[in-house]
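Homework help board

Subject: predicted structure for assignment chain

Our instructor gave us this sequence and asked us to write out the predicted structure in token form, then describe one feature. I got the tokens but I'm not sure how to describe them. Can anyone check?
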Amino acid sequence: MSERTRVLVLNAGSSSVKYQLIDMLDGTRPASGLVERIGEAGGRLVHTPQTGGRRETLQAFPDHTAALKAVAEELAADGLGLDSPELAAIGHRVVHGGKRFTEPTVVTDDVLKEIRRLIPVAPLHNPANITGIEVVRALRPDLPQVAVFDTAFHASMPEYSARYAIDKAVADEHRVRRYGFHGTSHQYVSRATARLLGKDPAEVNVIVLHLGNGASASAVSGGRCVDTSMGLTPLEGLVMGTRSGDIDAGVVFHLHRVGGLSVDEIDDLLNRRSGLRGLCGDNDMREIMRRADEGDADARLAFDSYVHRLRKYIGGYYAVLGRVDAIAFTAGVGENAAPVRAAATAGLTELGIAVDPELNSVRSGEARIISPAYARVAVAVVPTDEELEIARQAFALVHQEPAETAGPADPSLPLPSESPEEPRSEG
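My token output:
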């Protein structure tokens, strides 16, 4: 293998940049960090080298260009700069790849042009992703820049899953279909769940529940996504931190015609003032559970609504798959909120689904089974690692090898899971 064994993973969100430098020989993270509040007065950069000595910089970052240049400087200060001879590629998380991008793709001018063309269906994220690519291309033009798309894993859905039942010509003209998101997480977790069961991913049917501030479910059959809860945008599906999830489209017309709300106001309502926050004023699941335990009726309603939607999707995807080998909980809420896991699977013993209370109560950063031995369906907690998945795919593309064999099977230094209340930049 070449001495170029490291991949820098960049996740440029609408107002933040997350980054990790990953060594594909052993999964170690020589450095990681976050720039947040880009474009605001109180910007912050937190840089954590593997050697220790976490550094925090408080300053304004007027745009993503300034933020990414600051990241490059922090890496360089530790001898890990963009000119490092160990760098094999830079992997960029790109939220929306439309129908064209169904695999990791080396960035060219034509690829950038197409990602830009998709901005109308990802207006908050694709522009930031593009900026991240452009800045790093300018800083290191000789290095392969690989775009890894959130939507790519879901491209395997059959047309009857991906299509909405609206006029086909109108849908095609405006690219209206189910794309799905959190794809790198669903791909990583479904494969890791198969390993946990000691089976080949091609033999396993898994329901993946990615539960963070943004939340989505997927039905994965033999390593391929056959259905997912998010749609044209990340608004559809589960009840989320601030998003409504599934809703009668007529509500939009009613709010406009009867309530007098503008389209932008309705957009803001459904994306930022709905979900858990809309029901109880809070989108921190820990706080909601605390309030519900103390008898707060609004918090109890929010929790019950959240769980009810989860159960509907578990049952629905059980029917879609026909046979379910495992249900995997992941991301901040999925990995940390034992009461959510217990409530979402309660009363499903006729489907072969059960959770062992003692196993469920254990807090661990490791992938683990929390169902009793007699359960027909394994219920698992599987920490996600989207950055490693992006690095794998980028490294595999550069080296022309299968992504599942690129780099370590499991990272030797897994990062802490996302906290339940922490918003994710995927939307």
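Reply (TA_rk): Your tokens look well-formed. For the description, you could write something like this. Confidence is low (pLDDT under 50) at residues 409-427. That's the kind of observation they're looking for.
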